[in-house]
């Protein structure tokens, strides 16, 4: 498609885009009520929560979203969305031809870095704001020396909200954390106590923090994605978002001042959120992280390419069915094995082209919640741990031998690399990294032996051979 026939994304150009056969918002975006403010408008928010709100708006809902960027780096998103009336294109990629649709649920984006913080406070304190949602990643919940955190700024906004008597507020975490609502509550209360001694009591009485489990693979947008959208769909979009077709959202129904009817768009409200979280954390998230560093060492670029390697797939099957599943409580009507089947199917999706480098992000924050609990439980029940131990050994090897400039970001990367360098001569030295490894693992002779064996085979024979050795040891043990 020539550039002369492409259409720059914008509100006035939606009819022309629709004539190309691309679904666009059919609702009056000017009539959406900005009752939902979302901190951290990245790819995941735009492929997940914003899509649920968009679909409801298409059927008469009046809820809309105001995006809020608190970091200096959010300037790029502010510029992209600002240039196209906060519209963006969602590209869904399965194994067939990708599909595109324009999403319109974000009606405004406010960039409020620390130097311009008043705008953020005003949004949090606005009487029309009923839900403050966020996607700030795992590291966003940690206190930082000398710099105001996201939760410090939320607490400052809550002071203003209280003083204006603007009403109750739901604070909804959409981050990939176990008990993300409880984590948001704890971080908010801690920040509030730092600012004003009486603020935590007001928060306890006026704010709710529902836990939620969110799921949709959303790789980073590439120049190829922008090119496909321009050449195949005829849309010029500064920052489209790419996702797999699958999505899931499970959450508690604990909202202080109403909410969109998200269940009408497929969300599941439940009182078993902990069990759902464990399904995702110990199967999907753990499998992602367990394959990531070993695949990176093998020079594999994409998740689906790794899944095409027989030993990688077998390694993940053993990890899921023999190591993770026995540690999980089954949810009635949702078999653990079916969830594991879905994970493998999603990873094999060749359309989404999920980057191994993306999955390697934040190992120090991810492994303690994704994988360590499975190992600890299997040690208690004398169950299998070979695949999990080999995956952690792969992470240690990755940290030691890959150029730090080429490694995926980890906020604790410098500390992790210090232990990883020691592991080159003594593999179990890595287990002294207490940020990840609790005392019961560090003192377990069985875990230390499995870790050392996995590390030794990675160093001697390579990551694929190590994965093959881990899954075959379990099969051989069953046969014996």
Short recap of the structure:
With 480 residues, this protein is an alpha/beta fold. It has 21 helices and 14 strands.
What is the element layout, followed by pairings?
Layout: E1 7-8, H1 14-18, E2 33-39, H2 43-47, H3 49-57, E3 63-69, H4 75-82, E4 88-92, E5 99-103, E6 106-111, H5 118-125, E7 131-134, H6 150-163, E8 169-173, H7 180-195, H8 199-206, E9 207-208, E10 212-215, H9 223-233, E11 235-236, E12 241-243, E13 248-251, E14 268-269, H10 273-297, H11 303-307, H12 310-324, H13 336-347, H14 356-359, H15 363-370, H16 372-380, H17 386-401, H18 413-423, H19 439-442, H20 445-461, H21 463-479
Commentary on this structure:
- The chain folds into two domains: 3-269, Rossmann fold (3-Layer(aba) Sandwich), CATH 3.40.50.720; 274-479, N-(1-d-carboxylethyl)-l-norvaline Dehydrogenase, domain 2 (Orthogonal Bundle).
- α6 packs across α7 and α10 runs antiparallel to α12.
- The strands form four sheets. A six-stranded parallel β-sheet has the order 6-3-2-7-8-9, with helices on both faces.
- α6 (150-163) links the parallel β7 and β8.
- The mean pLDDT is 95.
- By secondary structure, the chain is of the alpha/beta class.
- The chain is built from 21 helices and 14 strands.
- 47% of the residues lie in helices and 12% in strands.
């Amino acid at each position: 498609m020539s550039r002369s026939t492409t259409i720059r994304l914008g509100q006035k150009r939606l009819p022309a885009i629709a004539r190309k056969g691309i679904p666009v918002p059919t609702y009056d975006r000017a009539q959406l009520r900005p009752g939902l403010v979302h901190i951290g408008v990245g790819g995941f928010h735009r492929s997940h929560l914003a899509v649920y709100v968009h679909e409801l708006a298409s059927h008469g809902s009046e809820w809309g979203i105001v995006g809020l960027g608190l970091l200096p780096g959010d300037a790029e998103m502010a510029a992209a969305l600002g240039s196209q009336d906060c519209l963006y294109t969602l590209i869904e990629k399965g194994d067939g031809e990708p599909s595109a649709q324009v999403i319109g649920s974000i009606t405004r984006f406010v960039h409020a870095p620390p130097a311009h913080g008043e705008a953020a406070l005003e949004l949090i304190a606005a009487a029309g704001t009923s839900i403050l949602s966020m996607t700030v990643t795992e590291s966003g919940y940690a206190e930082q020396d000398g710099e105001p955190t996201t939760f410090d700024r939320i607490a400052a906004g809550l002071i203003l909200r209280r003083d204006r008597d603007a009403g109750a507020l739901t604070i909804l975490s959409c981050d990939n954390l176990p008990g993300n609502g409880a984590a948001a509550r704890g971080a908010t209360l801690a920040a509030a106590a730092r600012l004003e001694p009486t603020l935590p009591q007001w928060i306890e009485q006026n704010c709710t923090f529902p836990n939620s489990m969110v799921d949709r693979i959303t790789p980073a947008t590439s120049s190829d994605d922008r090119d496909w959208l321009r050449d195949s769909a005829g849309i010029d979009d500064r920052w489209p978002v790419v996702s797999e077709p699958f999505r899931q959202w499970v959450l508690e129904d604990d909202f202080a001042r109403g909410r969109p009817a998200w269940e009408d768009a497929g969300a599941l409200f439940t009182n078993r959120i902990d069990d759902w979280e464990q399904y995702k954390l110990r199967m999907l998230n753990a499998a992602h992280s367990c394959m990531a560093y070993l695949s990176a060492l093998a020079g594999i670029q994409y998740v689906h390419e790794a899944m095409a390697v027989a030993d990688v797939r077998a390694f993940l099957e053993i990890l899921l069915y023999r190591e993770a599943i026995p540690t999980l409580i089954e949810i009635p009507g949702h078999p653990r094995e079916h969830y594991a089947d879905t994970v493998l199917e999603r990873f094999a999706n060749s359309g989404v082209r999920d980057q191994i480098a993306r999955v390697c992000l934040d190992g120090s924050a991810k492994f303690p919640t994704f994988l360590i609990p499975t190992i600890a439980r299997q040690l208690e029940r004398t169950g299998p741990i070979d695949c999990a131990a080999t995956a952690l050994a792969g992470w240690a090897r990755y940290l030691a031998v890959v150029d730090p400039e080429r490694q995926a970001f980890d906020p604790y990367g410098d500390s992790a690399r210090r232990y990883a360098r020691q592991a080159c001569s003594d593999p179990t030295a890595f287990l002294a990294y207490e940020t990840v490894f609790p005392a019961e693992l560090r003192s377990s002779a069985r875990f230390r032996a499995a870790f050392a064996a996995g590390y030794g085979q990675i160093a001697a024979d390579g990551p694929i051979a190590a994965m093959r050795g881990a899954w075959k040891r379990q099969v051989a043990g069953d046969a014996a």
